[in-house]
Amino acid sequence: MAGSTNLRRFPGFLAVTIACLFVLYAPLIVVAVYSFNASTSITNWGGVSLTWYLDVFTGPEAPKFQQAALNSLIIAVCASVIATIVATLAAVAMTRAGGFRGKTLSFALINLPLMVPEVVTAVASLVFFSAIGFTTGLTTILIAHTVFCIPFAYLPISARMQSIPDMYEQAAMDLYATPREAFKLVLLPLMTPGILSGFLLAFIISLDDFLITNFVKGAGIETLPTAIFGSVKQGIKPNIMAISTLMLVVSVVFVSLSWLVGRMGQEKT
Amino acid sequence: MTSPGIAVSVDRVVKRYGSVTALHGVSLDIRENEFFTLLGPSGCGKTTLLRAIAGFEDVTEGHIRLKGKDLVDQPPFKRPVNTVFQQYALFPHMSVTENVMFGLLRKGWNRQEAERRVRDVLELVQLSDFAARKPGQLSGGQQQRVALARALAPRPEVLLLDEPLSALDLKLRQAVRMELKAIQRETGIAFIFVTHDQEEALTMSDRIAVMSSGHVQQVGPPREIYEAPINRFVADFIGETNLLDVTVESVNNGMAKVLLPGNRSFECPAAAVDARGPGHLSVRPERISICAEAAGDLIATVTGHTYLGTDNQLHVKLVDGEVMSIRLQNTESTLLPKAGDVIGLNLEADAARLLAD
């Protein structure tokens, strides 16, 4: 395109690009490749095998990881569902209620978890839960996850809402739909791609979280990331690489889905 | 307060947004069966008035009555009026049929009757073959007709149209005008049509209300609006006109005697002017003919001309420096004066009009 900058002509473009790609992806590739290693060593290559994937599901640590994966799944589903509902309501209020007092403040509050350092939130949550004497494992994790998932669900939903002009709801009400019917029959279906996208993003953020979970989890309760960390502390075994690779695949699938669903909705209107 | 024959009565409606007043006590009666147009430049309040009738804007003061019933406190979904929106606002996730059926089902029609009604309305707008399509798969003109069908389906007492033709290209717009007018006659309900396009207003309307800055300037049939404007704004906004500074000598029974530039005297109809002194004379460019210098009401010097296809537009300058334009039909016999020629101009007395400021 005429007039646009040709990035390739910048000095060092290729070197910087390769360096970035290397730092970002080389470790992931190493983990993924070594998860197929036949040897018990994590540094010596002993041929291709699926031993460690088998070990994840049937090995001595399998029950521990399965329980952790189940916990992670329960928390991720519940937290992202609740966060998506809250985020949807927030997005409707922020884009449809006009200007109200404290609108900017509300916006800042919704997005605060993105700006506060995670370790601060983790410590604060821990202090808060123990101050009120609330230490029942899964529930504390669930509450904490719901809170930090809200902004992640909110962003795609509100982006979608802003692209829906309010003429559709007006047309619905002009055609005898009550405000409730206009929301249910017109606005909600148009918002759906944004809501799905927000849900998937919140789900994967919850599934991945280690820091806050590690602070607020009760004794004996593990999610997949904390279980992996616990296991690594006793030395890295190749089965950890297999688990990590599986989680990586799940993450990539969900993030891609979230992006695809969001884009699909934009093409429709 | 029911007046027979009146569909919508707008009664001293005021709309203020903070310190801005969009409507200054507008009063209008729209008759049943009428194609009524709100015409004016953007920002004149015509869309605000339409949205107030639909219920999307609260009025600050005044009343809007539909067949005698006050609508002001009714939410939009309880008003028996439907709107064709400027951008159509067709629901993108529903098919044409579902769009058209939407209002019927919300109004509580049973499905069978609703389906029959949808078929009838789609036939009326000639879209029966497109019933299963989504709005995104239709052309602009087709979408416009779906919007019309959707608004007509629930048999509203009044149909509101918010510049529905402005998104169409010129050729299509001209075809749709005739179609709209025919559909209005066929359905027999009052249409309230908002536009800034004077040609649209003149060709389709039974009556036009010309609005500017929140006031209704004049209400009347197209011919009256065009040929007997009551003030400078209306004369200037509708079509082209020449506004001449004249001296009023006397006004009697709606006829004025004025002194034209160049001091020849002239008699013509007057619109609500009774003062002597300076005044404005409106003369349409096509109601002026050229003649020999001595025989004209005005003496002018030709400064040039513009070729317009069907017409030639002649530009002239009067003795006092005022500029006028004259339209001469482009026939073979037309001999155009050249720049620099001094010519006489004859004004058709019944087509000229003395205007209030």
Automatic annotation (TrEMBL), chain A:
UniProt GO BP: transmembrane transport
Sequence ranges assigned to domain ABC transmembrane type-1 in this UniProt record: 69-258
InterPro entries registered for this protein in UniProt: Bact_Polyamine_Transport, MetI-like, MetI-like_sf
Keyword terms, alphabetized: Cell inner membrane, Cell membrane, Membrane, Transmembrane, Transmembrane helix, Transport
Coiled-coil positions: none
Subcellular location: Cell inner membrane; Cell membrane
Signal sequence region: none
Listed GO CC annotations: plasma membrane
Annotated function: Required for the activity of the bacterial periplasmic transport system of putrescine and spermidine.
Family as reported in the entry's similarity comment: Belongs to the binding-protein-dependent transport system permease family. CysTW subfamily.
Name this protein carries in UniProt: Spermidine/putrescine transport system permease protein PotC
Organism encoding this protein: Roseibium aggregatum (strain ATCC 25650 / DSM 13394 / JCM 20685 / NBRC 16684 / NCIMB 2208 / IAM 12614 / B1)
From TrEMBL, chain B:
GO function terms (MF aspect): ABC-type polyamine transporter activity; ATP binding; ATP hydrolysis activity
Superkingdom field: Bacteria
Reactions catalysed according to its record: ATP + H2O + polyamine-[polyamine-binding protein]Side 1 = ADP + phosphate + polyamineSide 2 + [polyamine-binding protein]Side 1
Matching InterPro entries: AAA+_ATPase, ABC_SmlMolc_Importer, ABC_transporter-like_ATP-bd, ABC_transporter-like_CS, Mo/tungstate-bd_C_term_dom, NA-bd_OB-fold, P-loop_NTPase, PotA-like
Keyword set, alphabetical order: ATP-binding, Cell membrane, Membrane, Nucleotide-binding, Translocase, Transport
Domain ABC transporter: start-end pairs: 8-238
SUPFAM superfamilies assigned: MOP-like (SSF50331), P-loop containing nucleoside triphosphate hydrolases (SSF52540)
Subunit record text: The complex is composed of two ATP-binding proteins (PotA), two transmembrane proteins (PotB and PotC) and a solute-binding protein (PotD).
UniProt protein name: Spermidine/putrescine import ATP-binding protein PotA
Annotated organism of origin: Roseibium aggregatum (strain ATCC 25650 / DSM 13394 / JCM 20685 / NBRC 16684 / NCIMB 2208 / IAM 12614 / B1) (Stappia aggregata)
Phylogenetic classification of the source organism: Bacteria, Pseudomonadati, Pseudomonadota, Alphaproteobacteria, Hyphomicrobiales
